[in-house]
Design a protein that fits this description.
Neuraminidase, 4-stranded antiparallel β-sheet, 53% strand, mainly beta
């Protein structure tokens, strides 16, 4: 089991869940700060991805979130409220383009008890937006999908990624127009470790195909796998974007108990070429 050889990793600091986004040609990183073992976030930090310069730090109550930029260059940030209890919600704000100050949050996605939200990600495809959300109840997590034309009003639409009783979490979603398909990633427990696996959907996220083997990447390869002896047993919470013909990513390693270290990677190719590594 291993990460595909085409990815180049960099080990960094502990910052917990982060999301990458491109705004006006600049690669930025949003960090959803929370205390260790806390079930809610308290601060949104914005940094330059390449220099790690802190650009802004503002109170914000959404955790495990994501950031997207629309065609008018408006920055939208999403995150979920306290996930200690069921029936939490995903909230949304827009960010001031100069100071990155969040607007007053609104409710974006709701879920009924006994379910609750964890991680989410959003991608643009055509004139619509597609969200992938990790929703959990007392039987464990599952991954579902929602759709919106304005990033405000959402409708659940699509299938379920992962079988009942199977652990899946920490999803990401990327529309790859050159392949007319969604590239999906999700966390899965394999032999006592947590690895990030790829999947694809060519029918608007109603059915899914999972990577088995492909060319230089044999069976047992993953998009992300913790390096033995240095990264614990975890490679989770992936966020990745394409900029100038390369794919950049941020993710977490650790032991799921006492350590959570933020790492980055880059892939010398487009999102379509990364898709081709697996499908």
């Amino acid at each position: 089991m291993s990460t595909i050889s085409a990815l180049r990793k960099t080990k960094l600091d502990s910052r917990l869940e982060c999301s990458l986004f491109v705004h006006q040609g600049r690669l930025l990183e949003a960090a959803f700060r929370r205390d260790w073992f806390s079930t809610f976030a308290h601060t949104l930090e914005i940094r330059d991805f390449f220099t790690d310069q802190l650009l802004a730090s503002h109170p914000w109550a959404g955790g495990m979130g994501t950031v997207v930029v629309d065609d008018a260059h408006v920055i939208h940030v999403f995150g979920n409220t306290n996930w200690a209890s069921y029936n939490n919600k995903i909230i949304k704000s827009t960010l001031d383009p100069a100071t990155f100050t969040p607007s007053a949050p609104i409710d974006a996605l709701l879920v009924n008890s006994p379910f609750k939200f964890y991680n989410l990600d959003i991608t643009k495809y055509g004139t619509k937006w597609r969200a992938i959300v990790e929703i959990s109840n007392d039987q464990g997590p599952a991954i579902y999908f929602a759709e919106s034309s304005d990033l405000v009003n959402w409708v659940y639409r699509g299938g379920r990624l992962g079988a009942p009783g199977e652990y899946v979490g920490c999803p990401s979603i990327h529309w790859v127009p050159d392949r007319n398909a969604f590239l999906l990633t999700f966390l899965k427990s394999v032999s006592g470790k947590f690895v990030t696996r790829p999947a694809k959907s060519s029918d608007n996220c109603f059915t899914f195909s999972y990577f088995t083997s492909n060319g230089p990447n044999p069976a047992g390869s993953y998009l992300l796998d913790a390096d033995p002896g240095t990264e614990g047993k975890n490679a989770s919470d992936l966020s990745m974007v394409e900029l100038d013909g390369k794919v950049y990513g941020v993710y977490l390693t650790g032991d799921q108990l006492t350590i959570a270290r933020r790492n980055t990677f880059h892939y010398d190719g487009t999102m379509a070429q990364l898709y081709d590594e697996f499908f």
